[in-house]
Amino acid sequence: MTGDVRAGGAKNSALPLMFACLLTDEPCRLSGVPDVADIRTAVRLLEKLGARVESPAAGEFLIDCSAVDQWEAPYELVRTMRASFLVLGPLLARFGRARVSAPGGCAIGSRPVDMHIAAISRLGAEIVQDHGYVEALSDGLRGGHVILPMPSVGATENALMAASLAAGATRIENAAREPEIVDLAEALAGMGAQISGAGSSLIEIEGVGRLTGMNREVVADRIVAGTYLIAGAISGGDVLVEGARSEHLGSLLEALEAAGCRLSEEKGAVRLAMDGPPRAVSVATAPYPGFPTDLQAQFMALMCLADGTSNIDERIFENRFMHVQELVRMGASIRSAGRRAIVTGQRALSGAPVMATDLRASVCLLLAGLAAEGTTEVLRVYHLDRGYEHIEAKLAALGADVRREKM
What we know:
The protein is of the alpha/beta class and 407 residues long. It has helices at 11-20, 37-49, 75-78, 88-95, 114-121, 153-164, 179-190, 222-234, 250-258, 296-303, 324-329, 359-371, 391-397, and strands at 2-6, 28-31, 52-57, 60-64, 72-73, 97-101, 126-130, 133-137, 145-147, 169-173, 194-196, 202-206, 215-217, 238-242, 262-266, 269-273, 283-284, 309-313, 333-337, 340-344, 353-355, 377-379. Helix content is 30%, strand content 23%. 53% of the residues are buried.
């Protein structure tokens, strides 16, 4: 594949920004929002709560939460998208109450909301779990000392939003450091929040009485950008990914360079060129800035064609190797034991009907299909639509023979 492709705005940044609009009664404008299923779910949830949401142009949203009069995020919406749980902190901070269903999302492993609940509790909220819902009440949140047992992105975001309107100072230790956290913190600061340390493991917030509206462009999606870079590598192509930021992709770029890819940074973009088969490279997923769990499946697809044997260690989620058996159906040589997959590269993969089990597994199989001999049919691509914007059109523009069958 050859050509230019744009990564677009980050779903995992746009979602918390959309829910942060609940913190103010002033209108907010977001641009660069990706056209994916999870964004549409977020719109429905905000409207369910009483917000007014308009989209005057592609990728642009006007969100007015001045008339919000509901405090419950129901199961039928939260079950389809885990990020819906992020309404807990903003609703509680602004209205003193929230009732949110326990979340769903991809079946990639246990992702309990205990850390969210513990963090919010440290800010003085009274929380009850009953009948599949988390109900939180407060007569006014107070600053507190939040120590996360692991750097959870969602728990950091919920605590960050709630603490912005809490009385007094809050410290979040062992905070997540992802670029999406920085994007949210900068947006909140633009609304009047007092935040320091975002992007480090210690975030400090001095609560304020009210927040104003925001006008924010969503940061580019590093996972989508990384996926397109791997697509260029697995196809032996030359691809320029616009919106890719090398400072957000350090661990992936190191692995791709070790695999034999030629990388260069251009203004607002990263170029990858690949000649011949990749070299085997072992990686282990870790919290940012470590190798992203959301790129593990895609990188495994590349290693299926590598010269040599690589170890892929999944240290974030315990059930994120469901794509392994589907890759084996395509001729890959993979042995998995616990959280390690041992991949012995093959000269070629063969096209086969395969089934996606989650968002990143679906794009992993799509990438494998790009390099396989014959036709690959990926079933259950609704997972793909949760996080990738018009991906078949973008890949086709790079020269891939890919199309979506209407069911």
